[in-house]
Amino acid sequence: MAISDVTDASFKDVVESAQTVLVDFWANWCPPCKMIAPVLEELDIEIPGLKIVKLNVDDDPITPGSFNVMSLPTLIVFKNGQAVDRIVGFKSKNQLQTLVSRYL
User: Fold this and answer.
1) What is each CA distance from 72 to 6, 13, 27, 31, 34, in whole angstroms?
2) How far apart, in Å, are the Cα atoms of 37 and each of 23, 30, 79, 92?
3) Which of 21, 33, 43, 52 is catalytic?
4) Residues 55, 7 contacting (CB under 8 angstroms)
5) Catalytic residue among 15, 21, 23, 30
6) Catalytic: 33?
7) Rounded Cα gap, residues 7 and 11, in angstroms
């Protein structure tokens, strides 16, 4: 599955899927966001059953505000339409695998 971009308008449809969804809240000016992007690409390939999407906080600020996203990158795990966990800042591949494996 390829990582896709979501917007404020499409966000609800994406996270309300039955699948576990990891949302990467990011911005172009954020160096840790750029560092974590290749890690997310690897996880997208390696973890079946996980959907990863990205939301640019500068282009679509309503959704990040509704989830109290204060720092970037913020990654929130959604299960059955509910935010169930979050992690803030650059994290290693192993840390991200541990985070999402609890919800698969």
Assistant:
1) 16, 23, 8, 9, 10
2) 12, 11, 22, 11
3) 33
4) yes
5) 30
6) yes
7) 6
Q: Residue 85 in contact with residue 50, Cβ under 8 Å?
A: no
**Is CATH 3.40.50.1820 the right assignment for the domain spanning 4-101?**
no
Helix (H, G, I), strand (E, B) or coil at 79: strand
Supply 94's token pair: 């192993």
Q: The pTM is what?
A: 0.96
Please confirm, yes or no, whether 76 is among the known catalytic residues: no
Q: What is the pLDDT of residues 57-95, one digit of tens each?
A: 999 999 999 999 999 999 999 999 999 999 999 999 999
Q: 1 pLDDT band (50/70/90 cuts)?
A: low
Would you list the domain boundaries of the chain? 4-101
